[in-house]
Amino acid sequence: MKAGKSAIASPLWVGFEGTSLPSEVSRWLAKGRIGGVVLYARNIESPAQVRALCRGIRSSAGRGNPLPLIAVDQEGGRVARFKEPPFTRFPPARACSLFCCRNETVAEAVGAATAAELRAVGIDIDFAPVLDVDSNPRNPVIGDRAFSDDPGAAATMGIAFAKGLLSRGILPVGKHFPGHGDTSADSHKELPVVRAGRETLLRRELLPFRRAARSGIPALMTAHVMYPALDRALPATLSRKILHDLLRERMRFRGTVFSDALEMKAIADRYGLGEAAVLAVAAGCDVVLVCRGESAQAEAIDRLARETRDRPTFRRTLAAAAVRSGRLRDWAASKERCRPAPRAVGAARHRRLSSLLREVWESTGRTSPADISGNIGEG
């Protein structure tokens, strides 16, 4: 059983409460039972504290285990885990599209500035850009997080932001595949349904993801959303028709697939956390996130271990997933020697860029909803 648990370390990434590493999470890292950690605003006090926390996470990894990766959501606007000075907080993604008629150079610059600050404190991965198309004005969770209501512009700007992240050593994760823009429900609270037909989905919601996949984006995150035109039975996170047949086979995506956080009510109210983790991996997720609750995380660890031990086909699926997520780890390791100095946090040029974009944003009379604290904003 112990060997089984170690074998399934890499698919499960966790979050935790507080600004220091809990002993149980440290133990899981030492035994190779989790492959990464996701940080939130609740874990962040200062640049020095985050750097120390990231060092502690990495040093907790047991000998012979892969080095854990550390991720965060730093989109800008209402989804920003590093939101207090001295960190630079950029306006929402939509502001980039309003600046100089969708100037993709600006989106790339924002991505690069964001990455420099994340690298300076020890982060490897940003769960951004949002590649959703803002196709439903009643959507309670996307809105100005999307770069545009035009699929082509959403693709161009999102790819530019991802390019900026990569240029400063941060791995981007585009989200929320196959598109969360045309929903009118909040997946933190219930399971949204997108009722658009298949052709509309392919033409509109999927276009940014298709172009991002062709551009070489290293990773995508799934949506906890039903798409009856694509799969009548299961939400995207748990759907092999969507993650394998559509994303892997039709779209030829070869990168890493992350689930959104499985404790969101869209999933957790319908499945146990352990069952959801197994279904997500079987569907095509290479990394599954359980970001709150040590008991839920332990349940996922145990259930994944049992499936790995008892089902050879599941072991093979996990092996393929580990290869794909391992590419992220290899890339991150190659960037370790080029970590920016601490002074990158809140650099004057970053603040100037943020102020310029904020002026453009506020001149339109637009306002953003309050910060999102649930896991679509956190994962």
Detail the topology: elements first, then pairings.
Elements: H1 2-7, E1 12-14, H2 23-30, E2 36-39, H3 47-59, E3 69-72, E4 74-76, E5 79-80, H4 93-98, H5 104-120, E6 125-126, H6 151-167, E7 171-172, E8 174-177, H7 198-205, H8 207-215, E9 219-222, H9 240-250, E10 256-261, H10 265-268, H11 273-283, E11 287-290, H12 294-310, H13 312-334, H14 348-363, H15 375-378
Parallel strand pairs: 1-2, 1-11, 2-3, 3-6, 6-7, 8-9, 9-10, 10-11
Antiparallel strand pairs: 4-5
The geometry reads as globular
Low-confidence stretches: 1-9, 373-379
Radius of gyration, in Å, reads 19 Å
Largest sheet: 9 strands, parallel
List keywords for this structure.
alpha/beta, 15 helices, 45% helix, 10% strand, 9-stranded parallel beta sheet, 379 residues, two-stranded antiparallel sheet, single chain, disordered C terminus, TIM Barrel
Description:
It contains 15 helices and eleven strands. The relative contact order is 0.15. Mean pLDDT is 92; it is low at 1-9 and 373-379. The chain is 45% helix and 10% strand. It is globular and about 60 Å long. The longest helix is centred in the C-terminal third of the chain and has 23 residues, at 312-334. It has one domain (2-367): TIM Barrel, CATH 3.20.20. With 379 residues, the chain is α/β, with parallel strands linked by helices. Strands 7-6-3-2-1-11-10-9-8 form a nine-stranded parallel β-sheet, sandwiched between helices.
